[in-house]
Design brief:
454 residues; Hypothetical protein af1432; 2 domains; single chain; mainly alpha; Arp2/3 complex 21 kDa subunit ARPC3; three-stranded antiparallel beta sheet
Length: 454
């Protein structure tokens, strides 16, 4: 587990940079003290240093092929298995130098050979590795029995389990804190978004590390036998991440294709997602809930995929039969999204984004708090973009008219709190456009019982 990247302003000091950089500096000082302390326990023989070099090389090689976690600020690699084996085999002082040399070499090689990442992640990643391996090795040696043989007793097994638990708890904590300080989100939220999905990967590394240690004890060359299962675990985790990302991209591309069928709805879901995001942030919702709402907004019209263009872009009013058919699209969208477990949490938002606060919407006639908050936010964002865009059945309204209609429908069609948050966020965005045009998002420039009904 390691940090992928921090914004390049580290040391430039915006408000959040001060505690973040102070935190990183604290870890660097602790790690430096551990490295200095461990010098006295380093081997005096060439063979001993050869062992350190072998394990450090395995750490560096493993770190050259990381897997990026959700949120793109954290990475995982199979070097954890090597760390666990080092903690079991060599004691804290040697393990600290394996962590220090291996992680530093991996960071340098990764930047020079594979991808030029910012240097500002290096002090944190190296310090975290040193602190982790020093702590875990001390814990293991305090709990394990004192016999020369490794992992041959119940105490050794307990020590392994405890060391593994501390390794991943401490690594998740250290990484979550630095991201939380940088991004301004709660630590638990960062963990849920960035690290929670790595839990099974982490658990797998503990027995693999034990196998590494046992094979080294039997015959050092035999650790080659563990490389295949280690590579298999790494590949399976990478495939899961790639599958999730490809599925997300495919669904979003499909939603964009639906928008692109007509020039009047081109980029509609993108603008709705932007409006929904700024509203959710104005309401100070947790980061993961904001992300869920944004993803649901991008997919909210997915149910229109099988509907006849002649009906969707009809210049006049819909007949009762056509309206009934049209009102099926939230349910169809929910079903389509539901086929993908990774997006299942957004199903209710997609299904209920045409419900009315007073219970007169569709498809279920839910009202007030029965409607998911994300769906209430999406309803306002969708309506505003629909009103301020040209449609086959009418020309775009002015922003002032659209705002007036949102206010008029507040408490009936729309949640009053959501309307208030949306209008506040919209006004702030207009101020940014006015005084700081470089910060305003350009797509906002393009951006009722009749409001958002089609």
């Amino acid at each position: 587990m390691r940090l992928l990247a921090l914004p390049s302003d580290i040391g430039g000091y915006k408000l959040r940079s001060l505690p973040r950089d102070a935190y990183i500096l604290t870890l660097v000082l602790i790690a430096g003290a551990l490295v200095v302390w461990s010098i006295s326990g380093l081997p005096a023989t060439l063979i001993g240093w050869g062992t350190i070099a072998i394990f450090a090389l395995m750490v560096a090689l493993a770190d050259l092929f990381p897997i990026v976690m959700p949120g793109e600020m954290g990475e995982i690699s199979v070097s954890a298995a090597v760390f666990i084996a080092s903690a079991i085999l060599f004691g804290p002082q040697v393990a600290i130098w394996i962590a220090f040399l291996g992680t530093l070499a991996g960071e340098i090689c990764y930047r020079l050979v594979i991808l030029k990442r910012p240097w500002n992640r290096v002090p944190f990643n190296v310090s975290m590795a040193v602190i982790l391996l020093g702590t875990v090795s001390v814990v293991y040696y305090l709990v394990a029995d004192t016999s020369p043989a490794h992992l041959n007793s119940l105490r050794d097994l307990l020590a392994l389990i405890l060391a593994g638990f501390i390794y991943y708890t401490l690594s998740d904590l250290l990484l979550s804190v630095v991201i939380a300080l940088d991004q301004g989100f709660p630590v638990l939220t960062v963990w849920r978004i960035t690290l929670r999905d790595a839990a099974w990967h982490n658990v797998t590394m503990i027995p693999l590390g034990a196998i590494f240690a046992l094979l080294w004890t039997v015959a050092p060359w035999s650790i080659a036998l563990a490389l295949l299962p280690l590579l298999t675990v790494r590949r399976s985790m990478a495939l899961v991440r790639e599958s999730l990302e490809q599925t997300r991209q495919a669904l979003i591309a499909l939603a964009d294709t639906i928008d692109a069928r007509d020039s009047s709805t081109y980029q509609h879901s993108q603008r709705v997602a932007e409006y929904a995001e700024m509203t959710a942030r104005q309401m100070r919702l947790p980061y993961d809930e904001v992300e869920l709402i944004v993803t649901s907004a991008r997919l909210h019209d997915l149910g229109k995929i099988g509907m006849d263009n002649a009906m969707l872009y009809k210049p006049g009013p819909l007949s009762s039969e056509e309206r009934e058919e049209f009102q099926r699209h939230p349910s169809i969208g929910e079903s389509l999204v539901g086929y993908f477990p990774a997006f299942g949490a957004g199903r209710d938002i997609v299904r209920h984004h045409h419900e009315h606060f007073d219970g007169r919407g569709y498809p279920n006639g839910k009202e007030n708090e029965e409607i998911p908050l994300g769906a209430r936010i999406l309803a306002v964002a969708d309506a505003y973009d629909a009103m301020t865009s040209d449609r086959p059945y009418r020309s775009a309204m002015s922003k002032e008219t659209a705002i007036a209609r949102l206010k008029a429908a507040s408490g009936t069609q729309f949640d009053p709190q959501v309307v208030e948050a949306f209008l506040t966020a919209l006004a702030r965005k207009e101020e940014e456009r006015r005084y700081m045009p470089h910060r305003a998002q350009p797509r906002l420039e393009e951006a009722s019982s009749e409001a958002g009904e089609r």
